[in-house]
Amino acid sequence: MTRWQKLINISLKKKIFILTSLFVLFSITDFLSFKLNPHTSFFVIFIKKLNFETSLKKTKNFYKDTYKKPIETDEFILLTWLYPTIAQRNLKTYEIDPFYRLLNKDYKINITNKEDIETFAYLMTDWTDADIIPTLYCDKIDYSQDEFEQLKKIRDYKGYYGDTHYLMSLLFLESLNCQLPEILTKEKSSVINAIIKAQNNTIQPSIDLFAERIVFLYWAGEKKQIKYNWIKRLVHSQNNDGSWTEIGTQESDYHITGLSALAIQYYINNGIDNNIWFILENSSK
Question: 105 and 209 share a domain?
Fold first, then answer.
């Protein structure tokens, strides 16, 4: 009997033993891989495909009905990053808005100085907008050191909205070369550490802030800091119709839905795959 014939005639018990041993070895290896880097674990990848992608499919179906009513600028921008085809047939509350530059660096709008920005004051619904918009157009206006010092005042040093919005502004300044790199690096490091520390806190914030932290950390090139349990929390808090709502409310929120879905999409892809001009350099880290 040849060597190959002997191998073929191995008893069923031995075959089962070999297969079981291989499975155990694979399981141990995958467990160690999960501990070292969850992104490379077969188990996590499997969960992503079955659970996370199902979550995004539900969200896409939810968004297909958004054309029935006009949506705000931030909601439209998030929708464009997620599902551009759906966004194209969507109704926007405002046809002109400084924040549309997030979608296109060459967005045509009459902003050449700080006075021009002030004409859009009626669109500034968030308390940080007046400080953020100048950073988004810092290459078009004479962005001063005084304005940068004023921008620093929006920080809360607790990883809340003041910090996340400050980080976003730093990314604008960095991408448009409007501030010294060494200054931006120092400021980014400080605010990123505050956001990560807050995100790891056992007392969890609103879904909106929780998702925003994840998205902005991805934008800042900090994908290695993102944890599986963070994404898991987002998926578990999703509504049956594919949307998200704030804790204690029942009405679907397009802004929170967009941030949550974007965070999940980034996690599935192990990084950013959108053509977002102001974070392309950071996302490649």
Answer: yes
